[in-house]
Automatic annotation (TrEMBL):
Gene behind this protein: def
Family: Belongs to the polypeptide deformylase family.
The enzyme's E.C. designation: 3.5.1.88
Provenance organism: Chitinophaga costaii
Protein name, entry field: Peptide deformylase
A GO MF term: peptide deformylase activity
Entry keyword annotation includes Cytoplasm: no
Catalysed reactions listed for this entry: N-terminal N-formyl-L-methionyl-[peptide] + H2O = N-terminal L-methionyl-[peptide] + formate
Domain of life of the native organism: Bacteria
GO biological-process terms attached to the record: translation
Binding site for Fe cation: 106, 148, 152
Amino acid sequence: MIYPIVAYGHPVLRKVAEDITPDYPGLQELIDNMWKTMYASNGVGLAAPQINRSIRLFVVDSLQILENLEEDEKKEYPDDKGVKQVFINARIINAAGDEWSYNEGCLSIPRIREDVYRPEEVTIRYVDENFQPHEQTFNGVTARVIFHEYDHIDGKLFIDYLKPIKRRMIKSKLDDITKGKINVDYKMTFNK
């Protein structure tokens, strides 16, 4: 099943999501459908709040970004091998390295892309889809995607990192998204 993506303006995107247990109803089916939804929407990550579930779950496939980079661009991320991974009940342990800019977008905020500064590296503690615990450090584009999806489970959006003047410049576009005045090639849910 492909879920509709929750659009900017919906309150679920501003909630701090709840941890889940291994007996969360239909968890494996939910994860499978999140992958399907993410790929159908041409995303590289998807968090449960984006499908109207306020739980600490997100999926990331940074492999597809790295595979599509030009050879000279790949040199910018020599240690980033990419991942296709499920993150449940994640907690960031550490963020390190210099902050660097990358033009981010979000399935919940379509047609808006802005440069966002984030640290080079993230260390995160989480459980996988089998509830096996992990603590890993990621860098480069993979860290970037993890930071972005992690923000979703903490009720934050990439636009929160923009300077006030930039936020004012995109306000009418954000208002249009909130009102459902946008066309995208994937299903969306609006808070009208």
